[in-house]
Amino acid sequence: MRVPYGWMAEYCDPGLDPDVLAEKLAMTGTEVERVVVSGPPSADNFVIGLVTAVEEHPDADRLRVCTVDDGEGERTIVCGAPNVAAGQTVVVALPGAVMPGGMKIKKAKLRGVPSEGMICSESELGLGDGKDGIMVLEDGLAAPGTPAADVVPISEHVLELEVTPNRTDCFGIYGVAREAHAITGAALAPAPWEGESVEAGGEIDSLVSVEVENHDLCPRFTARAFTDLKIAPSPLWLRARLIASGQRPINNVVDITNYVMWLTGQPMHAFDLDLVPSGALSIRSAKPGEKVATLDGVEREVSTDTVLVCDQNGPTSIAGVMGGAVSEVSETTTSVLMEAATWNGPNILRTSRDLNLRSEASSRFEKQLHPDLAERAQIVATALMVELCGATVASGMVDVAAPLSESGPIRLRNGRVERILGLAIDTDSQTEALGMLGFGVEADGDDLLVTVPADRFYDVTREIDLVEEVGRVNDLDKRLPATLPSGSGRVGGLSRQQVLQRRAEDSMREAGFDEIVGWSFTDPGETERLRLATPDSRADAVRLSNPLSEDQSVMRTTLLGSLLGAAGRNRSRGAGRIALFESGRVYLPAGGFGHGPLGGDFPGDQRPPVNEPQHLAVLASGTIDPATWDNDPAAADFFQIKGVLERLALGLGTEVEVVAGEQPFLHPGRSGTVVANGEEIGWIGQIHPSVATAWDLEETVAFEIRLAELLKASPLGEETYGDFTSFPPVDRELALVIANSVEAASVLAAAKEAGGDLLVSVTVFDVYRGDQVGPEEKSLALRMRFRADDRTLSDEEVDPIWQKIIGAAEALGGKVRG
Amino acid sequence: MLERLETIEAEGTAAVNGAGSAAELENLRVKFLGRKAELTGILRGIADLEPAERGPVGGAANKVRKGLEALVESRIESLAGAELEASLASDRIDVTLPGSPVRAVGHLHPITRTRRLIEDVMIGLGYQVMEGPEVEHDFYNFTALNHPADHPARMLQDTFYIESGAGAPEEAGPRDVLLRTHTSPMQVRAMETTPPPLFMIVPGKTYRRDSDATHSPMFHQVEGLAVAEGITLADLKGTLLAMLREIFGPDREIRMRPHFFPFTEPSVEFDVSCFKCRGSGKVEGEDRCNLCKGIGWIELGGAGMVDPNVFGFVREAGYDPDLVTGFAFGFGIERIAMLRHGVGDLRLFFDNDVRLLEQFS
Fold first, then answer.
1. B110-357 to CATH, choices 3.40.50.150, 3.40.50.620, 3.40.47.10, 3.30.930.10
2. Who among B106, B153, B228 is closest to A488 (CB)?
3. Running DSSP on this structure, what letter comes out for residue B184?
4. Which of B134, B354, B356 to probe the A interface (max A CBs under 10 A)?
5. Whole-complex ipTM
6. What is the average pLDDT across A642-655?
7. Which residues of B touch A490 (CB under 8 A)?
8. Which residues of B touch A502 (CB under 8 A)?
9. In 3D, which of B152, B315, B314, B312 has the Cα closest to residue A464?
10. Residues A754 and A801 sit within 8 Å (Cβ to Cβ)
11. Facing residue for A484 by CB, picked from B150, B190, B239
12. Which CATH class is domain A496-712?
C-alpha cells in the first residue's frame, strides 16, 4: 500500500520526517518496506515560469528556442515539445535541479543555442504520462519564480506499507491517518464521510434496479446514479495522488473510483449506465462454462463459484475482481451507475486464485470488508462526481443488504493485559489507546466494555485482540521487561535417539567425510538414472502438484541421488577428494513407519501423510586418502567403504553384518545388504559403472542405511559391566580352506552357532588365494576367543567346542589346513 | 708362580684393551679365561701346590680372573654401543621431506553446526528437541494454526502441495497434503501428545515456492514453544534475548515489533542489534554498516503469544486458554548461519561445494 505523505497529512499530519514516521509505524505493527519519493528526488530548483516568446531553432526543425520569465529575469531554454507556446505557465527545472532517475540539469548548448534549464512535461515530473509534451498549467496559477512544489505536488514522499492481511483499515489512506494519530498523538481530522448518509430509495429507483441471488456471497450492494456528466482528464492534484499511489490516471470517473478506494479502502466500480439495459443488474453465481470479457481485454471462462454482476443480456463484471468490457466507461459516457458492494472474502480469494487474477479490488475484498464501508465510499464519490464531472446526482441509493449480525461489545478484564504481556498498563492508558484507535470504550466496574468500529470488525473480535491493540501502541518494545519463565522443574535435553544421531554424524565427520544437505525434491528422471523401476517402492515417488520446475517435482526416495549429484558437481569443478555423507530424510509412500521420530514416527494424533525416515548415506569417489611422496593410495573400494560402515557401527557400540544382496544401482558382484540385529537396514556397494557415468563419476562406492534401525541396535548408555580380569580368555586360531563361493559371513555365522556362549568373538584376520590352495578355493584364517564369566576355561573344556566349530566349518565344505 | 700370574694379568689387560671388535674380545676371553687357558690351568692346579703356596697363589689367580672378566665385559659393552651408534649414523633420512598426511577429518555442514548450536542453547534453557513431518496435513500446517480455509493469511506463504494418488494417500484432496511451510505444525502435534508445561523446540526443513538469493524453496527453521501457567510476552522477550546473546554475543539487544501472524496474538517480529556496528548503523570507512544496512538491527524471525484459537484445538489435551498461556517463536537457521559466517547467498548452502564445506571445520 503506497501512502503519499501529503495525502495522509490532509487528515493527520504528525509533523514528522517521513522516515521517522516510518520507524514509528514499524514499531507499532505496520511495516514500512521503504520510503520513496514520487517525482524528482528534491523540489529544489523547480520553479514556475512564464513562456514569453517562442522562436524556431535556426538549426533544428523540432526544437524551439523559448524565452522564459523565471521571476528573476528572462532566460533562454531550448525545448523539443511541440505544444510549447508563448503565454504558457509552466514548470521550469533550473540548472541544479535533479530529475527522477538522477539526471542533473545543467546549462548546455543545443545545436549551438545555449539553454539554461528545462521546461518539464508531466512524465518528467512523475505526474502523468506526458504524451502531449510539456505540462501547461492554468494561466495565472502562480507568479513566475514561485517554487513549483507550492502549486504542483512534485517530490512527494511515499510510504510503502506492507499491510498485514488483518488490517483492512490500513488499505485506506484515512485508516493509515488514524494509525498515525494513535501512535503520535497528532490531531485527526474528521473522516470525509463523517456525519453524512444516503437514504435508500429516491430518484434512483426509476433508473437502477438490483437483485441479489445469494446474500452470503454479496452481503451488500449499493448503487448510485449520475447523469449529464462530462468525461475528462482528472485535475492535476488528483492525478498526482493516484500516480504517487502507484495507479494510472484514466479519466475523471474511473479516477474517482480509484481515488475513493485508496482513501476509504472500499473498492468501487463505475458502469456506463446507458450500457446497462433498463439499469437492471442481478448478482448471481456463474453458470457452467460461462465466459466474461474483462476490462483488461481478456475473455475468461469462470467457475461456478464465481459471482457475476449481470445485466439483462449476461455478465457485465466479475464481482469484486474486475469489471467487464460490456459496460466500460468511455469518453462518450454521460451517465454512470456507481457500485460500492460488499463481497464474501473467502469467495473472492478463491475466485481470484482460480482465475490467477489479482486486482487492487480483489486484494481488499478477499480480506472481508465491512458493509458500512460501501456507504462511506458512495458519500465520498458523490461529492467528487459533482465537483469533477459536473454530474447531476439522482437522489437516493439502491441498497440491497442482508441484515448484519450484530456483535456486542467485548469485555477487557482488569488485569488481563498484564497477565498476557507481563507489563502493567493502567486502565486510563488502555482507554486512551483504544479510543484513539477508533474503538468505543466504556468502563464496567474494573473492566472495560469495548465496541469495535466497522474498519476493524473482522480483525478485533476477542479480548486477546484488544490486549494486542493496547500493547502495540504503548511503546511495547521499550517498556516490556525481559524475563524468563519461572522455573517448573523442567529439564532440557536431547532424546537418546538424538544423542546417538549426533554421534553417528560426528563419527562420519571424523572418518573424513564432508556432510552435505541435499534437496528434498529431485527430478523424476533420477529414478531412471538409478535404474529403479516398479515394483521397487523407491520408483514410486511422492509428487508435488505445483513444483517450481520439473527438476524439483518429486520427493527423493533415496539419498543416493543427492550424494551422486554433489559428487558429480564437485568432480566437474575439479575437486580432488570426494568423500561425502548426508544425514537426511527420504519420502516414501505411507505405511511401515520405523522406530521413533528418526523412523518417521512423529508425535501427534494423526499419522503423517507419508513415511519420511531419516537415512544416513556415505559416498566416496576415487581416492580419498592423501597421496604421499612415496605412496599413491588406490581409489576407495568396497572394503574401504565397508570399513567406514563398520566404524560407524563400532562408534555406536554395535555391529553390522553385510550379506550378499543386489541393488539396481550397484555393481552386481560388489554389493551387499546391511543387517543389524537381524534386520535389513540398508545397502552397501560399488555404484554400477553405468549409473556412475550418468553423474560423470568413475569408481564410486557408497552405503545407505535407515538411521533409526541402526541406532536401535546401539547399547550406548545402557552397557553393563563385564568382568575381564578374574578369568582370562583362551585365544585360538584356525586356518580353513574353503570354496571361494562360500562367504566369510556364513563361516563366521556357523562358528558362532557352534561356539555357543563361551565363544565371545570370532574374526577373519587373513584371506589367502594362490598356489597353496586350489584354484576355486581360499584359505580363511580365523581368530577366536573363548571366555567364561565365572571360571578359567581349561583346554579340556574348550576342545569339544573347538571340534564342534571345526565340524560346522567342514559341513560348509571347509578343510582345516595343516 | 706369582710372577707368572702378574705377567698373565699384564698381557691379558693389554690384549683386551687393544681389541677393536666384539669378535676379537670373544677370542681373547677364550684365550685368557677359557677352559684351556693358562690361568684356568693354574686355578685347577692349586690343590697340587704346597700347602703354604695354595693360599697366596689361589687368591692372586682368582683376582686376576675376576679382573680380566670384568674388563672383557665392560669392553664388550662399550664396543657394542659404539657399533650401534656407527650403524645408526650411516642410516640417515632426509628429514626435510614432507610428513605423511593422515586422512583429513571431514566437516559438518554449516546448517548442522548452526542447528546444533541453537539446540544446545535452548537445551540449556530447559527445552526438549522434537521433530515432525515435512510432508504434512493441511490441518496441522494451517487449520489448527488458526488459518481458516480460503483465508488470505494462507496467501502469505506460497505452498507446495502434494499430488494425491502417487505416494500421497489416495483419499487426500488436491490441497489436503502439503510440504510444511513452517515448523509450526509441530506446535499442535506436540500439544496433542504432551500435556503442559511444555517447553520444546523443533528444528527442521520447511518449504515455500520462492527462489532467489535470499529465498530458497527448501530452508530450515527452528520453532520454539513454551506453554505453562503464567507465561507472558515479557518471558518471550527474555527467552529470545538469552538465546540471541548466546548466539551473537553477550552485548546484543533485542527489539520486538508488533506484527501479525494468525496463530499468535499478540504477534511480533524480532530483531537483534547488529553485531558488526554494535547497533550504531555506522562502520568506519563505510557509508553505513553493510550488514544491517545502517539500521542497527537485523531482522530474525516471528513470535508471539499462542492464540487462544490454537489452544482450542488441543483443549482436551489439557490446554485451557483460561489456565495456561504460552509463547511461540520461529526463525531461519540459514539466516543465522549466513550472519554468523558471512555467507552472502542462501543457495550456496544447498550446492554442497566442498570448497564451501571445508571452510567449516
1. 3.30.930.10
2. B228
3. T
4. B354
5. 0.86
6. 94
7. 126, 197, 199
8. 116
9. B312
10. yes
11. B239
12. alpha beta
